[in-house]
């Protein structure tokens, strides 16, 4: 009797931590349902293979050498999309040629920033699904703005607190895209339009849930006209111990958390991308000190302009707050939030 072949899925995550984590979590969910999972990733911010022995990994030449990726530009993202196209196509062709001996390729699931995947999937006649790693509310606001961008840009400083048309309760200061001098440059506008376009994809997976964003999801489904699968939040569906972090996590802060009174700790982390200046760091430092609450504060190396790490803190700060405050370079965030 011929053994039943397993179905495999190829995941194509975007390289930033906030995008990579939900894609790997989705991979864990699919693997638990019997799928073989292949992760096709960029060379930059390569996932830690040892944390995911259940996956097959394939590295793609991303063309990013020479780019400053501490804050990716539209140019670098377009270069990455163009550079990854041939490596992914060649890999998928080999997979399809070997299908009779191995697993059957069911579909490709890709982060919306990796929009080149749609071209590859269309060319190879493979079904593709988009993963939206952010909220439906954010997506809805972008879709609304890009249908009539002239209604929103440019705007005046005096309008910053005015409501955005059709997007209550958002104000002009809350526009969810990168604004320069109260407008959006044409290349940036084109980029956002591109990542909002699902192309030939047959469905969209959302890291959110219907009960939380029902009205937004219904509006977006009318716009895109494909099935939606709001199966989040992903962290609730994967093992707590599984790490998706690119940076090394300081697990000693969990022992410190264990010693604190329940529901008493302030947690401060700006994520893997945001930068602040010295003035903002010092204001945050004194705000935490004066709160008289225990706090866990992540100061990522390179996150304070002009400084490598916590040396920008006021002299004697850590001694002053003592055991009440814990400052680390990077925390196991999933474990912290579940504590």
UniProtKB/TrEMBL annotation:
<dbReference type="InterPro" id="IPR002213">
    <property type="entry name" value="UDP_glucos_trans"/>
</dbReference>
<protein>
    <submittedName>
        <fullName>Putative UDP-glycosyltransferase 76E2-like</fullName>
    </submittedName>
</protein>
<dbReference type="GO" id="GO:0080043">
    <property type="term" value="F:quercetin 3-O-glucosyltransferase activity"/>
</dbReference>
<keyword id="KW-0808">Transferase</keyword>
<dbReference type="GO" id="GO:0080044">
    <property type="term" value="F:quercetin 7-O-glucosyltransferase activity"/>
</dbReference>
<comment type="similarity">
    <text>Belongs to the UDP-glycosyltransferase family.</text>
</comment>
<dbReference type="Pfam" id="PF00201">
    <property type="entry name" value="UDPGT"/>
</dbReference>
